[in-house]
Amino acid sequence: MDILGNVFLWMCYTSLGASLVAILLVAMKKGVHKAISWRMHHLLWFIVLARLMIPVLPESSFSLFTWISWASTSMSVEQPLSFSAEPLLQTNTQSPAVISDVSHGSEHNENTPIQTEVVKDEGIIERSSHPAYIQIMAVLWLIGVVILLARLFIYLYNMHTKERFLMRVTDDRVTTIMNACRQKFGVKRQMPVYTGTLAKGPLISGILSPWVYCPRDVYQSLSDAELYHVFAHELAHHKRKDLLWSFIGSLALAIHWMNPLVWLWIRKMKADMELACDEYVLEILGEKEAIPYGMTLLSFARQISEKRPMSYPLYFHHSHHINQMKRRIQMISTFKKGSAKLSAVAIACGLVISAVTLTNAAEPSTLRMPVKQDEKLRPLFEETAVKETNRLEKAEKLSGFPFKVPSYLPPEFTYQNSLIYHLEESEPSGNGVFHYFKGPDTSFKIVTSTIERTENSLHVKSEDGSILSTLSAEEDLSANGKTVKVIKRKTPLDDGSVDQDSLYFWKDEGLYYSIEGYDLLENEEIIKVIESFQAPNEDLRKRYVNYDLLNYNILDLEDVEYFSGIIGFAPAFPLELSGGYKATNAYVNKKLNFSYPENEEDKQKRTIHITFENPEKPKKIVLFAQIKDKSIVENMRKTKKIPFERIDGVKFEVPVTSLNIGGQEVFRTVPYKIDDTLSSPTDKYNHTYFWLKGDICYKVTFKEVEEEAQQQMVAALVKEKAIDLKK
Contact, 691 vs 116, CB < 8 A? Predict the structure, then answer.
């Protein structure tokens, strides 16, 4: 039933999309109906047919439905403006609404609404993902489709069968006129003419092997010119492939029979087809034949109207209705040769219309912002006074001023990270950069500031603000002609011991520098470091990068681009979710915050995390994570469990259930606590969802978010596309 329900909802969305396109085309055709040929009028209906019949259409930012989505601010994320084949439904499963996820090292998660096709497992009852009324309507729709398709194919079968019982016309007059007509229209294949009691008027049948039917009393009563016109009309249908388009239109109507507008559009398509056919005939025969052709049409229409017409389930016949006849005669009377040709302008307009209407809305992305180099640094999240980065090059861009760094480091010391701060409250306001370096037994940091540091800022203070340390000035040192002030700082510890470190200060080109570290480094070594200070170059930028940090903060688009290379793929990067949730931070982390790593190599795999919060609901958090690792979901399919890591490094497993969300296989955990048995009784339960696209595994964890809201966000995230780094 889920498959039938999904197909039914696809039909509804597709039918609605085609109706919107048809309304646009009808309005446009009314405005320019005299400016374009009837062949173009008819061709425009093929756009509606395409929307009705093509299951998947490309997405485009120029799509009509993208414009509609931009204009419709009241629509929620679940509304299918793209009319995709992935309907969005909600589950009826019952589970705790409270969830929590405060992962070790700040785990960030996934989002998405759930259509559930729950597999029987772990005591969970299987339920359909669609409400009862959807299932009932889907069954009724399917019954209608079967009936209409059966009627169509029975008609085609009967026509094929009756061909064998009709009499082939061998009258020299008829065959001569048909051959002359074939030559005029460039039809190389033989076109047999049959007669009998099949219908009261002429018709052409057979999509693959066409033949013409003409009642004996008709071809005997018509003059040569009139019979020529009759055959010309039927051959025009053959040349224009109208039988094929009629068949496709019949299939479209059978599939979308529940939409009354489709019946109307098909009828209008049939009417325009007859006008286009007449126009094509006159284009071949010439203007001088317009009046005789029109007279034949009138004469023949009077004959047909006196007899009961045959029923045609192809929905493209019965062109002799009085209103339709008036339109055809009016077109014929005003025909001018050349008016039926498709001009380059008309073709170009048709291509533009097709591009706008035969595409779906591009998936919304909150990263639609300019990507000029200077704007790549535009903050993605709320500005903070302190920013952290794992590379010197980024610190240069964030600091806002040029600074120097040492090209020499003591043996076995390596660069760790940089902090950039902006102190607006200071007078004057100060900017600074902290660079951290680590050795086997000690560490030090280099501070660069635009303002001189006060003595008070050098002290170590307690939580209540009281000063714990003492400062003592040492003898000044000299480095490259610069005076380096040395201060010893002593801080008593709780165990009675004293922590002692050294501070080195100097000024260079208007900036204030300092080195702060423990006394394991000799003054001579510090002087060598100071004397090596220089403006960063490419070599230093390559050296001053730390790939081993546990967390890398993502601050802007440049970071997204940079870290995409580290994680090995372009991530989905939404900045907003439904329900007022906005991204507040993002970072790259090791796998330990995604699932339990199998080994040390697996542990080093990188994941990307985004945190979403709602300022009106401070306790509710959504954590969205991604990793290039298909084995996570593949193992869940086999074991029906997902392994996590507790804060003490111990593995624990949580059962998962297989769901269907918008056509996407999704695994949802049972409610669990982030540290299993180590969690406190007051800790809330988590719900986490996993799914796989290609070789990228996505994960969303919810903290105290209602289940209905979970489902809406999961459904949206399942559809979220990876950002386009090229743009």
Answer: no
Q: What is the pTM of this model?
A: 0.56
Model confidence pLDDT, tens digit, residues 304-329: 554 444 444 444 444 556 667 777 88
Residues whose CB is less than 8 angstroms from the CB of residue 58 and which lie 6 or more positions away in sequence, other chains included: 359, 360
Q: In terms of Cα–Cα distance, which of 542, 503, 535, 504 is closest to 405?
A: 535
DSSP E strands, 543-663: 551-554, 576-577, 581-590, 606-614, 617-628, 641-645, 651-661
User: Do residues 295 and 64 touch, judged by C-beta distance below 8 A?
Assistant: no
Which stretches within 447-556 are classed as H helix? 523-531, 538-543
Question: Structure tokens of 237?
Answer: 């249908």
Q: Where are the beta strands (DSSP E) in 458-550?
A: 470-473, 477-479, 482-492, 498-508, 511-518, 533-534
Whether 391 contacts 541, CB under 8 Å: yes
Q: Which residues are bridge partners to 167 per DSSP?
A: 195
Report DSSP letters for 406-425, one per residue: ES---TT-EEEEEEEEEETT
35 CA to centre of own chain = 38
Q: Annotate 65-90 with three-state secondary structure.
A: HHHHHHHCCCCCCCCCCCCCCCCCCC
Greatest Cα pair distance in the chain: 127
The per-residue pLDDT for range 160-189, each reduced to its tens digit, is 777 777 899 989 999 999 999 999 999 988
